[in-house]
Design brief:
This protein has five helices and no strands. With 130 residues, it is mainly α.
Length: 130
Amino acid sequence: MTQKSRLSFSARPIQQLGVGGGPEEDTIQDLAHRPRVQERRLGRLFAASGVVVLAALALVGPTGVHAWSESARTLKQREAELVLLQAERDRMANRVRLLDPGNADPDLVGELLRRNLNVAHPDEVVVPRD
């Protein structure tokens, strides 16, 4: 067979070749093309699965919509906690300023002496708050 006859051979229907003999008019090129179609379908299936996985991660992944809303809620809680801690820090800074040895507030010093050392004048009455 020559090169020319081989090309024409592959384009003839299978029934003419004496192979199979069914009502379908499949050519050898069609049969050779089927694995490529299956490979394409398999590739499309993998691509679609990848898109589904990425969409799922976008919703519930570590940086997804669910995590975003939880981070926003945590941020609000931490901001509220920060406000409380800043108020406590300011209160403590004021107390340190009042206890400065060079310029101590006599009322605060007297209060601390009475509370911590249980010291009182003989004419004072102590009323505990507890």
